[in-house]
Model the fold of this input.
Amino acid sequence: MTKREHSLYLAHDHMYRAEDFRRDFDGGVGLKIVHLGVDAWIEAPSVRDYEAAYYVNTGFLARGLKRLTEVLKLERLGEPIKIVRNVADIQQAVEEDKLALILGFEGGKIIEEDVDLLDAWFALGLRHMQLNWAMRNSIGASQAEEDELDQPGLTEFGFEVISRMNDLGIIVDVSHSAPKTIRDVIETTTKPLLNSHSGSRSLADKQQNLWDDQITDMAENGGVIGIHFCSRLVLGINGVQSEIEDVVRQIECVTQIGGIEVVGLGPDYMLNFEGRDEDYLRNTNQLDISWTKGLEDTSEIYNIVDALKKAGFSESDIDKITSGNMKRLIGDVLPS
Done:
């Protein structure tokens, strides 16, 4: 395994196999938040099964635990990974020449409607939870509800969840949440927030991206916005592959609005996963999805460093974008 000048921290990733972790580290990644699942049964055997699970909680706890077990087993069998349970584990991963992993989940269905399940997940190693995926859940409204006249935000249960996550030391991730949900979280949380895979909505008008005032709110919270590498989120249109320069443009835009301290990397790598891609693309109806040319997986991810240098970012700023801002957020949230 090799080390690079800048150790990259990724705020959002779905690749959890041993070969994925080896590629990550060889590509220059020092730490990533790996998502054990999504608030949808994306690998369901049919569209009918996928749709039947869309608005229910059933099955997500069991599938999440199964995935958690698989990753913990890799660590136990000696794969060069280190599950991060506290801040000190990150430095230990560096000393042991391992990839640091923060275990997370994209959506709150893994706790069903029982806030005490957060304690159980925490004990098992979970240190991150995104509140929503593309649909509402018992915690609050997702981006799909943003146009409702009486826009919903956090539920009463959702406010309990934020408080418990803050107390335990679990990163609160507001990606995919409705604007009102994000506002409720910002007004409630005592810790910095993560928006793990997003961008500027003024550049790319997709619901997952953030308006200028939301970027400012995240900056004032001390939070971090992981810039997405998925083409449609970078460009705001479907069916066209983005270029590295387009990602840099997103970084420049978010930096100009919220400052250099608010920006991170949230590539959301999902594809090139034999046995999952076909079901995922069919079930979610995303056959035209693509990732930025030259940044399509972590074997290429160091290209973003070269592109930032070319765009005139200083070494100090590049360090903040690639790892420093995420390192600060993690230190502010996780147990010491």
